[in-house]
Amino acid sequence: MESSSANNLNLKKLKKAESKIEYLLRQQNLLAGISQLLNRPENLEQLLDDVLRLIGEHTNVSRVFLFEDICNAATRNTHKWCNAGIGPHTEDPQSLFYEKIPSWKKILTDEGRIFSNNIEDLPRDLYLVLKAQGVKSILVYPLYVQDAYSGFIGLHECVTGKVLKDDVSDLLKTVSNIISNALEREKFLDKLRDNELILNLAIESANEGLWDWNILTDYFYFSDTCCKILGYEPGELEPNISGLEKIIHPDDLPAIKGILTKLMKGESDSYETKYRVKSKDGKWRWILDHGMVVRIDVNKHPLRAIGTHIDITNRIETEQQLQESIDTKDKLFSIIAHDLRGPVGSFLPALDILTGDQELDEESRKEFLEDLKKSARTTFDLLENLLNWARSQTNTISMNPAQFIVNNVINENVELLSPVANQKSINISVKIKKELSAFADINHITLVIRNLLSNAIKFTHDNGAIEISAYDNDRQIEVKISDNGVGMRKEVAENLFKLKLIKTTPGTGGEKGSGLGLLLCKDFVEKNGGQIHAESILGKGSIFIFTIPKAE
Predict the structure, then answer these.
(1) Which CATH number does 34-189 carry?
(2) Which of 69, 126, 188, 552 is the most exposed place for a label (fewest CB within 10 A)?
(3) Which pLDDT score is estimated for 488?
(4) Greatest CA span in the chain, whole angstroms?
(5) Which CATH superfamily is domain 322-549 in?
(6) pTM given for the model
């Protein structure tokens, strides 16, 4: 009998030990599960609710709670789990002011926990609060975030005679450390997200795009603003350096490749440059690019570079317009100082002779008058072009498009300029098969035809020929004025309509000009929705071609 009793006792001890081991094993698995749970990249608030539930189900206590400090003086109940049949009670505090229970925070910080299986043993301020909540036993551990007290996690047992054991204390202590780490990590991530938000707001408010280039993997990150500048949706741009090179203007690409080569070789660690990039709609936009190397390896080879893209298209266009205004001003002053001064100045000697005491025969008098007539005509043409050019550049010239017959405008100008052509025995022929109706400003087109025809007469030799033709070309009318005059080199023809590159050349009869006539032709043709260009062969003549809208 004694042996049997001993065996039963040993069996009971063994089962108790096995049960204890199983409990501890479950507790270890629980801690591992909680640790993994709080390391998930999910909503920490929801995860903490799950953690409290797991603790409550494992320990079978009445209540598990988590308080997070609002400030040094107060804390707030952010998470709570209640066992079946316990439920929240009417006096369950959502916020707690430490000054009302001064012993609470003092015990937590001095002793590292609040633990009692009989709340009557606790200081009176704690006892009164806990008694009102029906608490019989309590276990609480502090939470520390960045080495600062920030709240607590605890258990309530509301069943009389049920005690909290050491293994529960060990569990809660470990969980408090895990939660402290999770809260610290979340606080760091919040700060990181805030900093990222501030950075993004600063960049976006400045309309700056951010790029980040991993040189090892060739991954090229474009921020949303980078994409927006060029009209792309986020993620549409190819995320590598080749993708960037594909949209850079071909004329700018060699310089950019040179900059990147220096960066890759470690010859420079930063740069600033501007270049053109094609936007999604096919237009070229100017980008100011700042870049710098932010990471290198042990051999000082660059590993990562970051920078910004700023859209400076409007600034570049403004600078170009300003330069054009300066060029226009310089050209006008040049015309006034040289081209206009010359013919006006020639009037004075001729007039002195004609009005002086010197006797002139009839032939000499006619020659002087003819010279004055030519100078007057040159001066008039120059002044007319000068005034029209000034009005055009200041946008004070009116636009009055209307339907008119192109044939009539051509014939009127041929008749007007025939006396000038006859002086050089130049034959002007008009070859238009049918009546052509255009829709444009008739005064503008009249000036264009008159300037082009005058130009053809000027650079055609005596006994030469000029031909004017016009065609119905789909939705436009195409006008050609060709001559068999002096012609010009290809590069000269390509720069005829550029203000900075125009040069005045005397005509075959010594006629003078300013070069403004062709610029006016281009301006007026384009204002009316057409285009103009020249084709020429040196020594064989030139053809000027322009288009204007056809009347519907």
Answers:
(1) 3.30.450.40
(2) 552
(3) 86
(4) 172
(5) Histidine kinase-like ATPase, C-terminal domain (3.30.565.10)
(6) 0.42
